[in-house]
Amino acid sequence: RGQGSIDKFSFAHFSSLYIIKQLIYKFVMVVEIENFYGVYLLYCTNPKYKGRTYIGFTNDPNRRIKQHNTGVKAGGARRTAGRGPWEMVLIIHGFPNNISALRFEWAWQHPDKSRRLRHLPKKSSRETAFQHKCRLVSNMLRVGPWCKLPLTIRWLKQEYMLEFEPLLQPPKHMPIAYGPVQSKKLKQSKAESVAKETENSHDDDDDDFVQLSQGRVTRCDVCVKRLQGFESQV
Question: Which residue has the higher pLDDT, 193 or 136?
Answer without folding.
Answer: 136
